[in-house]
Amino acid sequence: MKIEQPAAPNSRPKTTNLLALAIYDFEQKAKAFHNEQACSAPKNETPEARKARDNQRKADFAHLQCERTRIRQFAAIQATLEQYKKDNRALSKTDTGIDVLMNEAHHPTESLNNHLAAIAEPKPSVRHDAHHIVMGKGKYQQAQMIDARLALHLHGIGINDPRNGVWLPREYKDKGHWATPGAPAHKEIHRYNYETWIVSKFAIPGISKRVLIDRLRECKTVLKYGGYPPEIVKPKDTEWSGD
User: Fold this and answer.
1) What is the mean pLDDT of residues 142-155?
2) Is the separation of the CB atoms in 157 and 173 below 8 Å?
3) pLDDT score for 33
4) In this structure, what are the phi and psi dihedrals at residue 72, rounded to the nearest 5 degrees?
5) Distance (Å, whole) CA 41 – CA 36
6) In sequence order, which ranges of 39-122 are alpha helices (DSSP H)?
7) What pLDDT score does 8 carry?
8) Which of 6, 156, 199, 232 could make an S-S bridge to 194, C-beta 3.0–4.6 Å?
9) Is the predicted pLDDT of residue 212 greater than 60, yes or no?
């Protein structure tokens, strides 16, 4: 029988739950703050030093209050996302539910924005836009893009699921941001060839949920950091297969 060593007191929890980790970090910061306040004032402290210490105390407490607000908002957003995923899994089991998923609005992108924030992928800058990897409709190859979207819904993934989203710099001049160093501009990829690429990956009969999620993750990674096919930002090429 394998015996696991118990966790050290106050050790960081072994979990991928971002909310649990945020709460743990807040608890540690709050403990450190109150431990500091419990210490006696230094001997022979000057009035100036006491004022500086008091100002630091106020600033630290204000920071904790801001952190509390941030985590509370994060918890609310995460709860909304979990309910969204739960509802979509239920809808994917019936033809009527698939119709509901297909009719979900994808513009404006506020829902996708919030869902990305809920998985700790906040908007990197005011010059970034949330982009649906598998698009809501598509412009040039709508029938095939709808088939790709149906593949998402078949496996209980909504169009505004954060796994289907990525932040992209808005225009050419915004490229090179540290959070998305290899990303194309958002306005640069709404092209025929981008749709070819996505269709080739997702509009596949019998695609499994595992493969679909892996491909969403792959697309998100290369769109953020580079490695995407150069053809997706080039003029229309009907000969390109998307590989």
Assistant:
1) 90
2) no
3) 79
4) -60, -45
5) 10
6) 47-91, 95-102, 110-118
7) 54
8) 232
9) yes
The whole-angstrom distance between residue 87's C-alpha and the CA centroid of its chain comes to: 19
Query: β-pairing, 165-169 with 128-132?
Result: antiparallel
Report the amino acid identity of residue 132. H
Predicted TM-score of the model (pTM)? 0.67
Pull the structure tokens for residue 1.
Answer: 């029988």
Which amino acid is residue 3, in one-letter code? I
| Tens digit of each residue's pLDDT (9 = 90 or more) over 99-124 | 887 777 776 678 898 899 888 888 88
Q: State the residue for tokens 């980790």.
A: 21
Residues 6 or more apart whose Cβ sits within 8 Å of residue 85: 156, 158, 161
Question: Exposed (0-12), middle (13-18) or buried (19+): which is 62, by Cβ within 10 Å?
Answer: exposed
Structure token digits, residue 147: 């088939």
Q: Residue type at 109?
A: T
Q: What is the pLDDT of residues 53-70, one digit of tens each?
A: 888 888 888 888 888 887
> Per-domain residue ranges for the chain?
94-233
